[in-house]
Design brief:
- The complex is a heterodimer of chains A (404) and B (1016).
- Chain A is of the alpha/beta class and 404 residues long.
- In chain A, 39% of the residues lie in helices and 21% in strands.
- Chain A has 14 helices and 18 strands.
- In chain A, strand 3, helix 3 and strand 4 form a beta-alpha-beta unit.
- In chain A, helix 3 crosses helix 11, helix 6 packs across helix 7 and helix 8 packs parallel to helix 10.
- Chain B is elongated and about 120 Å long.
- Chains A and B meet through helix 6, helix 12, helix 13, strand 18 and helix 14 of A and helix 1, helix 2, helix 5 and helix 6 of B.
Chain lengths: 404, 1016
């Protein structure tokens, strides 16, 4: 193409290019720009009407959330401490805000990502005590571990969210009594023996299982991967412990780990009819579900995180566990009771959601030729059909509702 | 013709009958309504239970792996599918071991119905609790792992849904009942005179017809409801299964990718074994079937089966997808028959109650009620009759109430004993306490009744009975024993009180009617009580039945206080009071046990029969049947069958025994039949039934035949053994009445020992029915032994022959005249040997009085005196009783005319109007030189004893039926005093009666005959 032709082509499309240019400019203008906290904090669109989300000038790691409802009383103040960004936290905070919106109380939330930095964390605690916050939501196991180390017996009560089993992590002695401190714990874990029972029901002749976990996710290792490994090995099942060393390089590592595991699995199960992969609650792992599926091939991928089963192809076949949403709901109820003075944080026993959720993606199941027992189909709260579309959510038949 | 009644009188009569008929018809409708409520609710209970079991099955599969209940996944989707498939279900919830809600779906506010507001009951499956409150019915099932109950699942529905369906069928009957009652009342109120003169008892027939009409309407409604009810569970489960499959189909999932669908169908059939098959049918082709052979076949309807098709085709789909379930029609028929059987039992109870109502009304409506036809003009309006009828409900209701608990009392006592951690053998002891206290109270109560008045005795007996029920409500062992002891004392006092009342109130002409109250009360009360109680217990539980019993007794107590008249009792003849009575009884007992013939009868037949009654029928059979899983209503109805068999056999055999006098044969047959019946009952629960085709049906039939045989056997024994005892030579020494009373006392040893013996045998051999078979073998052996030992004994020909001390022999009965003012017997006498006794007639009288249990000193007898004969008054002067007096006069004339000249006659009369007849008597005595007239002004004297004996005899055979005509009375008397074994052999035949009243000849009870009667 010569120069003249380039000019003709450009000017012939000028109106379109102009529109495109305006669109790009308008998208990048300050009026429509994504908030500064968008890199680590997101929420469900469903709650947008009930809350306003404000940036804190000069600090992209903070967001102030206020209720849109008229508030006559002085609002209660809640600090939410994030250690990092995570889709799990997005789900949990959305549920918490949803629950508090239904309470019609005067309340505001300040969410701070302290990025696992002790200095930033200390500043947050200073802020909490100086401004007399009523409650801290400790988001994620890392926040919980940090707060438990540095703020145990602090003045402000703490309720944990999206945190793994506090007993297994040594934060509390037993499930049946309170901490006796300013901490009220909730747990993302379900009993391992229950999880194993469901896995064995799903695949009665299970021979091999590959457990996928991020090595640096201590909570996932200690409360999910290791207990599962022990329980399955006790049943004579060959467990392949597949730990990702560097979360930032998870995609590549997972490819190698799974390929190697399949070789190992095929030694005793050439057709992989009695082999599967199990994804633990490590964000860096389950966000690579597409990679995992691609490498796992005919071996079904199951997960302890219900949210890993989702619409479309990038989904686990089935999950058995406690959803972040359910855990967020329970934490919100705990937090509300503490704020309202109905309960002391130290008196509340470990909040475990029961029963866990089962989610099934029939599109993935059909793609790899896996059968789903009828009892699982009946029990599942979340079902996705052959098109990958949700047909049952929270136990509700969406096709019936659509029809009616 | 009777004069027309005033309109006011007609209206009052009509209103009375409307009330009575309306009440009895409404009672029938209410019984039907109650039965429908209970049974129809049971269908829903069955449905809810089956629905809950689907969830229980899924959850327990999880729990049995030692997993915690709260971690069970899938409750909500399953529960919500169930709620979607059945709009009658309001809520399904799962509770942990502390009754805290773990999962809930639907209206979770219903929660677990609170214990204080509920009526807890156990059904055939003892793991199921059924609770109710004002608005909801809740079925609760336990959730178990392999070791313990870890929680419960509760499924609830609204009561209104059930009651609306029942009311829709029964409320329209109310106006029909009202219309029928008013029509009947108008008929009775305005046409009673005309109806009363028909040849047939038209009024009774109309009443019975209307009663049956209402019953037919009620049964029709019940059948309709039951037919629907039997299909509720199947339909609901089919809908539930359809709902479970709907999503598989609706999500367009490949059935091949979901293993376990066929298991869901198999599980459905396992939970509802009545159904023949269940299938998933796509475009008419079977895709899944409970019979795998049918998969791939086209779906075809099966004849003789109900077919339920649930369309689960996805919207917009071209495929037609159905869940198909087939249910054999015979299942529906059988379940309907079962429910109608329950109603039939209640119908019998209602009929007894209706009869009671009608007779009460007859008492009020003395002249014009339906029973008027049965009363003579002389007796209608009689105070005695009214007083008798007023006491009838007291005894009937008390008997009914006492038997309310008999179907389940054994299981209940056993449960209380077990809950108290005591030895199981105590169960039989608790039973024994009742009979022991009953027996020990009889004598003192009889003494009290004679010393004071029957009414206070009755009232105190009712009070104790009510108290016993209230104590039973406590539910612990101490009050239970006390309650049974008090019940025994109370029932005995009531029994004696009513008996004394009847004996004192009933005019001589109404002794039969009076005694009939006892028979009617006992048999009717027993049958009604068992029917009602056994059905009530599954509805309101044992405590509820006890409360009903307590309330009914309290109401009866109030009734007795208010309406039963206080009567003065004639003083006891036992001058030494209670001590004297006891001493006399003791002496008679010693004499009785010293007589080998009586000892044989008592030990080999009498006591064993009574022991079987209390130890087996009342104690062991209900206990064993409950253990075998029989429903309480079935147990109660089986006991009703026993009672009915007793009555029927008694009715059939008594006449034969009286005619032939062959009591020994009957008693032996009774003993052997009793053993055979027990042998059949002993097969209950046998493993053998599991090995034969239709084993369950055969087992039930065996038990039915066994119970009926046992009842028939006891019917063969109960009355004949008294006749047998009466023929023994011992009566010569202590008298028939005393001998009979002594026998009655001794046979209570069997009452007391029965539960103890059976209880001990259970302790030794275990609680199984084979023990009853061994008992049966023993009973039969005793019967055969009795036959062998008694084979040489013949009826003592000397019975009632004059003893050596008697010097005048009754040769002939030449006249018998009975009406409500005169009771006269005229006997021809002949001197048989010389005697120092100048007053030969008095000697004869004394002997007879002793034979009938009246020990009198000659001085006391002398005081009865000989009436001086005066000619100062003529019978015609007694205007008010002219007709009676005229008949009496004609009777004497006829006797005088037909008696051989010169024959010595003894005329014994109880008439209170002797002086009115004095001129006739004087004439009569003049014509019969050497004849004697003895006046017995008291109804308790010889003639009354004689007649009372006749009444008792007739009672055994006829259940206290009245005698509407002279002829029937004469026939009955002839039956009972004829043939060898009686006091008198009546060999003549009725040749003439006194003049019949022209206006109402059938109601004339005056009897005059010149029957030839030869004393033996």
């Amino acid at each position: 193409m010569n120069r003249k032709m380039w000019h003709r082509a450009i000017f012939a499309r000028t109106p379109w290019l102009f529109v495109l240019l305006l669109s790009v400019l308008s998208w990048t203008s300050p009026l429509n720009a994504a908030p500064v906290y968008a890199g680590w904090f997101r929420h469900s669109e469903n709650i947008t009407g009930a809350w306003t989300f404000e940036e804190i000038a000069g600090d992209p790691n903070q967001v102030l959330i206020k209720s849109t409802a008229a508030q006559a009383d002085k609002p209660k103040r809640v600090m939410v401490l994030y250690p990092k960004r995570s889709s799990a936290y997005d789900i949990a905070i959305s549920k918490i805000l949803d629950v508090f919106a239904s309470k019609t109380m005067a309340i505001e939330f300040r969410v701070i990502n302290f990025e696992n930095d002790d200095g930033r964390g200390a500043a947050v605690l200073d802020l909490v005590e100086q401004e007399n916050f009523d409650l801290i939501f400790s988001m994620g196991s890392q926040s919980t571990a940090w707060l438990h180390q540095y703020y145990r017996n602090g003045a402000t009560p703490v309720v944990t969210v999206c945190s793994k089993d506090p007993v297994a992590l040594g934060h509390i002695d037993s499930y049946d009594k309170g901490s006796g401190t300013n901490f009220a714990f909730t747990s993302l874990n379900m009993p391992t023996e229950v999880q194993v029972a469901y896995i064995m029901d799903f695949m009665p002749g299970l021979k091999n299982i590959g457990i996928l976990v991020a090595r640096n996710n201590i909570s996932a290792v200690r409360t999910q991967a290791k207990p599962m490994q022990d329980a399955l090995e006790a049943k004579g099942i060959k467990v392949l412990y597949l730990a990702v060393q560097d979360p930032k390089n998870a995609k590549e590592e997972l490819g190698h780990l799974i390929d190697d595991a399949l070789v190992e699995m095929r030694k005793g199960d050439p057709s992989l009819d009695h082999s599967m992969f199990w994804i633990t609650g490590s964000t860096s792992i389950f966000r690579e579900i597409a990679t995992i599926n691609r490498h796992a091939g005919a071996a079904p991928v199951l997960s302890a995180v219900p949210e890993v089963v989702k619409a479309g192809d990038d989904s686990a076949v089935m999950s058995i566990g406690i959803s972040f949403e359910s855990n967020g709901y329970l934490a919100a109820v705990y937090g509300y009771d503490v704020i309202m003075g109905r309960a002391q944080a130290g008196d509340l026993k470990v909040g475990i959601v029961s029963p866990p959720d089962i989610a099934i993606n029939f599109r993935r199941a059909r793609a790899i030729g896996v059968e789903v027992p009828f009892s699982f189909f009946e029990s599942a709260n979340y079902v996705y059909d052959y098109e990958g579309n949700p047909v049952r959510l929270r136990g509700r038949d969406l096709t019936r509702n659509a029809g009616s | 013709m009777a004069e027309p009644k005033p309109i006011r009188r007609c209206l009052i009569n009509a209103a009375t009958m409307a009330l009575v008929a309306g009440t009895s018809f409404l009672l029938l409708v209410y019984v039907g309504f109650g039965e429908a409520s209970r049974s129809y609710e049971q269908f829903y209970v069955g449905k809810l239970t089956a629905q809950a079991k689907v969830l229980v099955n899924a959850i327990e599969g999880f729990l049995k792996r030692d997993l915690p209940l709260d971690q069970y996944v899938g409750f909500r989707p399953r529960a919500e599918r169930l709620l979607s498939s059945d709009e009658t279900v309001d809520a399904i919830s799962v509770f942990d071991g502390n009754d805290q809600v773990i999962f809930g779906s639907g209206d979770v506010d219903i929660g677990l119905l609170h214990a204080e507001r509920i009526r807890l009951e156990k059904v055939s499956d003892f793991r199921i609790d059924i609770r109710r409150d004002e608005t909801h019915l809740q079925v609760i099932l336990p959730l178990e792992n392999d070791r313990e109950v870890v929680g419960r699942i509760a499924i609830a529905m609204s009561h209104d849904l059930i009651s609306e369906q029942i009311e829709a069928r029964f409320l329209p009957l109310i106006p029909i009942v009202a219309g029928v009652s008013v029509g009947f009342a108008i008929l009775i109120g305005f046409f009673s005179d005309w109806l009363g003169h028909r040849r047939w008892p038209v009024m009774q027939m109309i009443y019975a017809g209307l009663f049956l009409l209402i019953a037919a309407l009620v049964v029709g409604n019940l059948l309709s409801l039951y037919t629907k009810g039997t299909q509720i569970k199947t339909k609901a489960l089919a809908d539930s299964l359809g709902q479970r499959m709907t999503e598989v189909v609706g999500f367009n999932l490949d059935i091949a990718q979901i293993p376990g669908l066929d298991k869901a169908f198999s599980e459905y059939r396992r939970l509802n074994p009545d159904i023949a098959a269940a299938a998933l049918v796509v475009n008419g082709k079977i895709l899944i079937h409970t019979d795998s052979y049918m998969v791939g076949q086209p779906w075809e309807s099966v004849q003789g089966h109900y077919e339920y098709l649930v369309d689960i085709s996805p919207k917009g789909s071209l495929q037609e997808v159905n869940i198909a379930v087939i249910l054999p029609q015979e299942i529906v028929y059988w379940q309907t028959v079962r429910s109608v059987k329950n109603f039939a039992a209640l119908f019998v109870a209602s009929a007894f109650l209706a009869s009671l109502f009608l007779q009460l009304a007859g008492s009020v409506n003395q002249r014009d009620g339906p029973g008027a036809r049965r009363r003579s003009p002389q007796t209608t309006g009689g105070k005695e009759e009214q007083e008798l009828k007023l006491v009838k409900p007291v005894f009937y209701v008390t008997m009914c109430v006492e038997h309310l608990s008999y179907a389940f009392l054994a299981s209940y006592i056993d449960g209380v004993v077990d809950a108290s951690g005591l030895n199981a053998g105590l169960t039989s002891t608790v039973f024994t306490v009742y009979y022991l206290c009953f027996a020990l109270t009889l004598v003192p109560a009889g003494h009290l009744a004679q010393q004071f008045s029957p009414k206070p005795l009755m009232i105190f007996g009712l009070f104790l009975t009510a108290l016993s029920f209230f104590l039973l409500l406590n539910g612990s062992i101490g009050p239970l024993i006390l309650a049974r002891a008090i019940a025994g004392v109370g029932q005995a006092m009531l029994f004696i009180g009513v008996q004394s009342y009847i004996l004192n109130v009933a005019a001589p002409g109404r002794k039969t009617q009076g005694a009939a109250i006892i028979v009617y009360g006992f048999q009717g009360g027993m049958i009604s009580g068992m029917a009602i109680g056994s059905l009530l217990v599954s509805y309101i539980g044992p405590s509820g039945v006890f409360m009903v019993g307590a309330m009914a007794t309290v109401l009866t107590l109030i009734y007795a206080v208010a309406l039963v008249p206080a009567i003065s009792c004639q003083r006891s003849k036992s001058p030494n009071g209670l001590k004297g009575s006891v001493t006399t009884l003791g002496r008679h007992v010693l004499q009785a046990v010293g007589d080998r013939h009586l000892l044989k009868a008592i030990a080999l037949i009498g006591i064993p029969a009574k022991a079987v009654l209390t130890g087996v029928v009342v104690f062991a059979i209900p206990l064993l049947m409950a253990r075998q899983g029989y429903r309480q209503e079935d147990i109660g109805q089986l006991l009703m069958l026993y009672a009915a068999a007793v009555v029927l056999a008694n009715e059939l055999i008594a006449r034969w025994v009286d005619r032939t006098g062959n009591t020994r044969f009957v008693l032996v047959v009774g003993g052997i039949l009793s053993g055979a019946g027990l042998g059949l009952i002993g097969l209950l629960g046998s493993d053998w039934f599991n090995e034969v085709p239709y084993g369950t049906v055969v087992e039930v039939l065996m038990v039915l035949i066994g119970i009926a045989s046992l009842g028939a056997a006891h019917g063969l024994i109960n009355a004949p053994i008294v006749s047998h005892v009466a023929t023994l030579a011992l009566n010569e020494r202590i008298g028939v009445s005393a001998l009979t009373a002594t026998y009655r006392f001794l046979e209570r040893i069997g009452h007391v020992a029965g539960p103890l013996v059976v209880g001990q045998m259970f302790m030794i051999a275990g609680e199984n029915a084979s023990v009853l078979a061994w008992i049966g073998l023993g009973i039969a052996a005793l019967g055969i032994l009795f036959f062998w030992l008694d084979r040489h004994r013949t009826v003592d020909k000397r019975d009632h022959e004059p003893t050596e001390e008697g010097s005048l022999e009754v040769h002939d009965i030449v006249g018998l005249h009975l009406d409500d003012q005169h009771q006269v017997i005229v006997m021809a006498m002949q001197r048989c040997r010389p005697s120092k006794d100048e007053d030969l007639a008095q000697a004869v009288l004394m002997r007879h009085m002793r034979l009938h249990g009246q020990e009198l000193d000659p001085e006391a007898l002398t005081s009865l005196g000989e009436t001086s004969v005066e000619a100062s008054a003529d019978v015609s002067t007694v205007v008010a009783n002219r007709r009676h007096a005229l008949r009496f006069k004609r009777f004497l004339a006829d006797v005088a005319a037909t008696s051989p000249p010169g024959q010595q006659l003894l005329l014994i009369t109880c008439t209170r109007y002797l002086r009115a007849c004095s001129s006739d008597l004087a004439l009569w005595l003049e014509r019969h030189a050497g004849s004697r007239l003895i006046e017995l002004p008291s109804a308790e004297d010889w003639l009354d004893q004689f007649r009372g004996w006749l009444v008792l005899k007739s009672l055994d055979a006829h259940l206290g039926g009245e005698y509407p005509s002279t002829t029937e009375l004469m026939d009955a008397l002839k039956d009972h005093v004829s043939v060898e074994r009686g006091d008198v052999t009546w060999s003549g035949q009725l040749v003439r009666q006194t003049a019949e009243a022209p206006e109402n000849p059938d109601t004339d009870k005056t009897v005059r005959s010149d029957l030839r009667a030869v004393s033996r």
